[in-house]
Amino acid sequence: MPPEIKGIVWDVGNVLVAWDPSYLYDQLISDPAKSDWWVRHSFSMEWNLLGDLGMPYAKANPLWVERFEREHADQIEEFPRYRELIEAYGKYPQESHPLLIADSIALRDGLRGKYKTIALTNFSEENWPKVNTAHGGKVDRFDHVVMSARERLVKPDREIFGLLVHVAETRFGLKMEELLFIDDSAKNVAGAKGFGIAAIQFDAPEQLRRELKKFGIDTSGIPSSSELLPGEGLGRLQAIM
Predict the structure, then answer these.
(1) Model-level pTM?
(2) 123 and 206 assigned to the same domain
(3) Which of 14, 170, 187, 231 is deepest in the core (most CB within 10 A)?
(4) Is 229 exposed, middle or buried (0-12, 13-18, 19+ CB in 10 A)?
């Protein structure tokens, strides 16, 4: 029989709060086709990872500018305010994280009294307080947060899972076998399992409830919801082009 789970480790983006740069750029770029192009070809996950690793936007933004000018010089006339578009990502991170996944929030909060609750998130430290504030403090409800930007480590690297295990043991007296990790990324879930941590790949709240039950975690007393809850005052930016 597997060990009893005593600590639940949550990813944040697209598990507890929806994340997509399109939420931001669909507001700033009035032409849907141009917004789609910008997100697909100008924004990059490699650049976003710099913030997750702790690089401030003051240093990261010029790198994006340089790459855009080098790789997409033929698009400068189409995006004459490209510098403002680039700066907007770090200026308004809450607009890329506009919706709480209500049922996931309910599950985390409803299970918190019985299980230690830890966040393991690839996240910019500059973005974290803005996103949390926009959602009334509901994002940052954990017993501890292991954040990539603070640790200069990102999922799915083994080092960050080692740090997670160390935190769980030293802060809460939990063994690795007593942890359950939830993440929407297949690579991150595989990384956790490869390290020896039980893990669930999140797809939807109702699927998560079924998976939690397999680990002996009862969610029947936690009301379910299919809602996506918008943050206060979000979605009101004016288009700049």
Answers:
(1) 0.96
(2) yes
(3) 231
(4) middle
Q: Of 80, 95, 110, which residue is a domain's last? A: 95
Tell me if 120 sits within 8 A of 9, measured CB to CB: yes
| Domain that includes residue 151, residue range | 7-18+97-230
Considering the domain architecture, whether residues 101 and 91 belong to the same structural domain is answered as no
Confidence (pLDDT) at 3: 81
User: CA–CA separation, 185 vs 13, rounded Å?
Assistant: 10
Mean pLDDT by runs of 10 across the 241 residues of the chain is 90 98 99 99 98 98 98 98 99 98 98 98 98 98 99 99 99 98 99 99 98 97 94 95 96
Cis omega before residue 156 (within 30°)? yes
Residue where a domain terminates, one of 95, 110, 129: 95
pLDDT value of position 1: 58
- Six-digit token pair at 18? 């929806």
Contact indicator for 115, 182 with CB cutoff of 8 Å = no
Claim to verify: residue 86 and residue 162 sit in the same structural domain? no
Q: Do residues 112 and 90 touch, judged by C-beta distance below 8 A?
A: no
* Residues 155 and 87 both lie in one domain: no
| Contacting residues for 62 by C-beta, under 8 A, at least 6 apart | none
